[in-house]
Amino acid sequence: MTLRVLIADDEQLARARLTRLLTSMEDVTIVGEAKDGEDVLTKVRAGGIDVVLLDVQMPKLTGVEAMALWPVDGPWVVFCTAHAEHAVKAFEIDAVDYLLKPVEPDRLKKALDKARQRETRETFSAAVKKHQAIPRLPVQTRQGLVLLDPGVITHAVLEGELVTVHTKDASFLTDYSLNDLEQRLPAGRFERVHRRALLNLEAVARLEPLETGGYLARTTNGHSVEVSRQAARDLRKRLGLRKADDDT
Q: N or C: which end of the chain has fewer CB within 10 A?
């Protein structure tokens, strides 16, 4: 089978070496390059990739951090690193293989042959599902990239043109839209309760009725989130509650 390979490394010389080695191999097609962890995830989610040669140390997201956000049906990963100690981490998260830099042609061929094996691919897919039991949300801040466990997020609100993600202890201004967050955060736990608000139902301490037929949700960290009338109706059904206008 022909493998479609993405080269992911922030060093131009490393990318050039891998390009040269892959070009000389049969049944391999280079489908692109990525220079940082966020770029890797964007290209992976777009599809059309079988294997990612993934550098461990990259800007924005390391290779290991990117793997924590890997799509369940995403391509197989072969880690590339200049540090032998990183190989231990590669095996902990069940990467297909790891390569030490400078990558040697025979070792690269062996890793790609391993990726072609059905048993290897099945093991990798199972590992991704296991590590994605609690996917994390990457949020860019001035201090660097923060990976948020959905469990600590209480709500997200559109304020002006930007969305603020609130956690139990902090708030983060993001470039995400509420639609983006709906797709990234666990369905069932997070509900779009208003056109300008997304709410973690597990973080709700109290629901106060409004004259509009909606609610004012009080979160465990003391914030208030408006719940629209329609969202309130859906929420009552989920909670097993009834109100006169719900039957009309």
A: C
